[in-house]
Amino acid sequence: MVQTWHLGACVSLLLLINITSANVIPLRELHFNPDRYSESRGTRADEDYHLPKTVKPEFYKITLTPNFDNFTFIGTVDITVSAPNGTDSISLHYDKITVDTVIVSCNNVEIPLNDSYVEATNIFTLELETPLISEESCIIHIDYEGVLHDDMAGFYRSSYTTADGEERWLAATQFEPTDARRAFPCFDEPGLKAAFQINIRRTKDLKSISNMNLLSSKDTADGLVEDSFAVSPLMSTYLVAFIVSDFKQLSLNDDHHLYRIWVKGDALTQASYSMSISPGIIEFMENFTAIQYKFPKLDQAAVPDFAAGAMENWGLVTYRERLLLYSEGTSTSSNKQNIASVIAHEFAHQWFGDLVSPQWWDYLWLNEGFATYFEFFATQAVEPNWRLDHQFVVNAHQNALAADSSATTHPITASVHTPAQINSIFDTISYDKAGSIIRTAEHFLTHNTFVKGLRRYLGIKAFEAATADDLFDALATQADADNIFQNDTDLNVKTILKSWTEQAGYPYITVQRTENGIHISQKKFLISGETEEEPATTWWVPITYTTNNSIDFENTAPKVWLRNISEDDIELTLADNEWVILNIQETAFYRVIYDDVNYELLKDYLNSDNYINIHPLNRAQLLDDSLYLARAGLLSYSTALDLTTYLAAETDFVPWVSFYRALTFLNTRFAGTEDYDLFKNYVLQLIQNLYRSVGFNALEYDEHPTKLIRVTTLTWACNFNYDLCLNSASALFRTWTDSTSRINRIPPDLRSVVYCSAVSNGGVDEWAFLYDEFLKSKVASDQVLILSALGCTRDVTLLRQYLTIAITPESKIRLQDAQTVFSAVYSRPEGVDVAFDFLSNNFVAVQQYFASTSGLRNIISGIASRMTTHAQHQKLSDFVSQHETDLGSALAAAKAAVETVTANLAWFDKYRQDISEWMVAYTETTTSGPTTTTGPTTTTGQTTTTGPPTSETPITTTDAGTSLSCNPLISIIILTGYMVAKY
Ligand SMILES: [Zn+2]
Fold first, then answer.
1. Assigned domain for 61 exists
2. How far apart are CA 57 and CA 941, in angstroms?
3. Distance in Å, CA 701 to ligand 1 centroid
4. Tens of pLDDT along 575-623?
5. What's the CA gap between 507 and 53, in Å, rounded?
6. Residue 77 CA to ligand 1 centre (angstroms)
């Protein structure tokens, strides 16, 4: 599944010191709604949430009749089961449906039974008066009724408005991980695979689609039509899907497969791009896996209300509209990348997840790690010029390094039992870190062995469920067959990979020169700067390196291994004036800290014309590692910031993505403080060359990475009131507002910058003009972009009104987008108090509005991550105390948010002086760069302030935002290619 908001990824960076996975809410996690799984269900033993597996489900026949007059549905399910060991008790799941009849029969003989239901675990138990015996096959028949809720889970309702203003209803499904049980009683565990035959009874004006192809449609006595679909292969319950709608379809048969894309009628033209790349991605996956796509067709559908980003239902992939629909002339380059990578993610799941599913949710990463890996490496097959192999490192790998450095992170292979626990691991660790470790394995095994090992794994486990050991065994067998470790018997694939998947966190490697080479040692990296208590964790670390007298950034095979021990020596020839760089192309999952001599050599080299000789991924690595090591107190800020000065000449987008990511943290901490102008000037001086290089205007022949980095660079420049940027932005906005036709000719990629600048520097008129455009827009991605820009206004009254609109059910802002509004507001320094006060004054209304989502939790965490003053800290603390009893499942996140603010304030007190002094020295020694309209730079930093910073400047940064456009982080999020929650 793909989650909306890559908050997980990016937000985590911003949540500072206290990066907890609870705070990190996810593009990928939007789907999941812990509020529905609150602890109010009572405390039960972990095993109570697992079915006893006395019987084995083999075949489901399901018939559903949705009713759009009263939003209910009637269902019947016949489940054929066997009892290998015989049993007199059957346990299965259902949730939020009403069971009317239950009949268990064997050989057409009904067996008397008593039933009981435990709401906390959703487990329905049938005690049989006559036991089932091992040879017979029996049928559980259940008649039931349910409600088509509007909470985007289970079998639920959604709607859209036609061009004529008519509201049309549809019903769709979202089952992963534990909501199939809301649509039909079932054995709702991923390891319990069965065949499914689905029947949908619908009115004649609608159509239905499901995983499999339609076999027949027949009229029923009550005036409906019953559609019957073919029997599926063995599959997990969470992958079953069906949609009943009046959607139109675009279809393509390329002689291998039938592709269809289903969307609301007036959006059909927006499906062309998705259709154009779909066959190429499937072909890549078929070639990679050497296994053909199994289903007779591949449907994709854009569902107007959709909690996750997208969902990989086998044969019927579902999406948020903005992750499938691309509108030429309106959608941005980042939208396009999001769409391509989400399609690749979901298509990769057709093999990794659907064909081979996790035995239990502990192994979720066997799905999401591979899907994340292919998000980049399969998309590359259809968009070869996007440099997605490099984007993987700066977006997924470095994102995971950030998220995995908190004390509360978890191992990739997790231990989960309850629905809440299961949902909580749809996070950066299961997606990006797992994807990164998979790439690490690819490089230490070599690509060919990696591919052959994966083919072995898929071949052995096809139509079955797997554990991590199944994967490791397949890779190990292949590694042995290819003698990858050259008879070095210490090295064992399973042992190596277990050290990375069963232990939380990762090491930083300290490198010190010795007489004969270098001494290396490993310690767990914690962003708090704390040292891990004994016994210290160690990993099997593949070590690659190069030196500047024999530069080789291409060979990523390990030269040596740090073998699960804390330190070792490496012999190599290293002249006094020669640098060494470890972790070539950042293929392995660790950070590197060097001695002072090496940093000095690297700084000089980077600041010479030779910097280009260092691979762009390692330039990105040096920035990312040093700024995070400094943030944790392991490296001096002066050393880390010294490395950044070479960026004044850098024009490759890859190192910039890393820098902007790390910069966002500093920006958030300095925003509104008296040293903020100093910080802005530092940034503007670094980016002026890049600004000149990419320019303000979009050019027809720009490469895709140029388009992406332009947006981010202009966003920082305009937000920091860089005159050239602001002037260009307002001139462009005027060409739109002043034209009589009101045709928007602003290039789509520039709209976020132009809108935000116009709203920020304009008044009510500009805001109202743009809000009107939101109401008229027919393109989902464009709507979200405008919603984000509307938060850029400095008018506090407007901001308050905007928040009110966001939680008004009758407004045109969908529930799934309402958090975007909050994040757009609190992402600006002056919006933090506005958003918090609004939440505080309208607590009940906000809580109720987001009751079916994790919105309240996300909003509290998001606002807190932006707080920079002791007064705000106090307000938040009071708020949490006051609502201790009614925050519900958001209470833990709220308490964590208070801790986050405490830690952030302490961090600022500790490092502010060093950073400011460095910036003073830097801005004095560099030639005058671009100036901001806020006047001369203030040179402070002589004192360590503990007082409340002022928030005088209207600058935006970001954080946990769903907000897209006007803040830099968001631009980075867009760059990542994951804009929306779970896939
Ligand atoms: Zn996924």
1. yes
2. 68
3. 33
4. 999 999 999 999 999 999 999 999 999 999 999 999 999 999 999 999 9
5. 40
6. 28
Number of domains in the chain: 2
- Distant-in-sequence, close-in-space partners of 759: CB < 8 Å, separation ≥ 6: 766, 767, 770, 789, 790, 792, 793
Spell 95-123 as b/e; 16+ CB within 10 A means b. bbbeeeebebebeeeebebeeeeeeebbb
907 in a structural domain: no
Nearest to 786 by CA among 813, 815, 805, 826: 813
Which residues, other chains included, contact 304 with Cβ-Cβ below 8 Å and sequence gap of 6+?
158, 159, 160, 170, 264, 321, 814
Beta bridge partners of 316: 299
How far apart (Å, rounded) are the C-alpha atoms in residues 191 and 359?
A: 4
- Tens of pLDDT, residues 85-115: 999 999 999 999 999 999 999 999 999 999 9
Query: Last residue of a domain, which of 246, 279, 298?
Result: 246
The confidence band for 948, taking pLDDT boundaries of 50, 70 and 90, is very low
Tell whether omega for the bond before 411 is within 30 degrees of 0, i.e. cis. Answer: no
Q: Which of 570, 597, 613 is the last residue of a domain?
A: 613
SS3 80: strand
Task: Compute the distance between CA of residue 35 and CA of residue 888 in angstroms, rounded to an integer.
Answer: 8
Distance CA 477, CA 452 (A): 10
Q: How far is the CA of 339 from the centre of ligand 1 (A)?
A: 14
Annotated binding site for Zn(2+): 345, 349, 368
CB < 8 Å & 24+ apart, contacts of 502-505: 502/411, 502/412, 502/413, 503/411, 503/537, 503/539, 504/404, 504/409, 504/410, 504/411, 505/404, 505/405, 505/409, 505/537
Domain interval for residue 520: 510-613
Residue 976 · residue 392 · CB < 8 Å: no
Cα gap 335→349, rounded to integer Å: 21
- Give the Å distance between the CA of 795 and the centre of ligand 1: 40
CA of 391 to the centre of ligand 1 (A): 18
Q: How far is the CA of 365 from the centre of ligand 1 (A)?
A: 9
- Annotated active-site residue 346? The verdict is yes
Q: Please state, in angstroms and as integers, the Cα–Cα distance from residue 728 to each residue in 682, 723, 751, 789, following that order.
A: 22, 8, 12, 17
- The answer to whether residues 522 and 509 touch, using CB atoms and an 8 Å cutoff, is yes
Q: Which of 703-717, 814-828, 935-949 has the lowest mean pLDDT?
A: 935-949
CATH number at residue 602: 2.60.40.1910
The reply to whether omega before 384 is within 30° of 0 (cis) is no
The 3 state secondary structure assigned to 852-907 is CCCHHHHHHHHHHHHCCCHHHHHHHHHHHHHCCCCCHHHHHHHHHHHHHHHHHHHH
Which has the closest alpha carbon to 56: 95, 90, 93? 90
Secondary structure (DSSP) of 261-283: EEE-GGGGGGGHHHHHHHHHHHH
Strands (E), 34-96: 56-67, 72-82, 87-93
| 889 CA distance to ligand 1 middle (Å) | 25
Tell me if 578 is assigned to some domain: yes
- Give domain status of residue 516, yes or no: yes
We report the CATH number of the domain holding residue 235 as: 2.60.40.1730
Ordered DSSP codes for 90-159: EEEE--SEEEEEEEEEETTEEE-EEEEEETTTTEEEEEEEEEE-TT-EEEEEEEEEEE-BSSSSEEEEEE
User: Annotated binding site: which residue ranges?
Assistant: 345, 349, 368
Structure tokens at 395: 């977006």
CA of 470 to the centre of ligand 1 (A): 20
- pLDDT tens sequence across 448-469: 999 999 999 999 999 999 999 9
Is 172 within 8 Å of 263 (Cβ atoms)?
no
Q: Which of 312, 346, 586, 766 is catalytic?
A: 346
981 C-alpha to ligand 1 centroid (Å): 10
3-state SS, residue 511: strand
CA gap 867, 905 in Å, rounded: 9
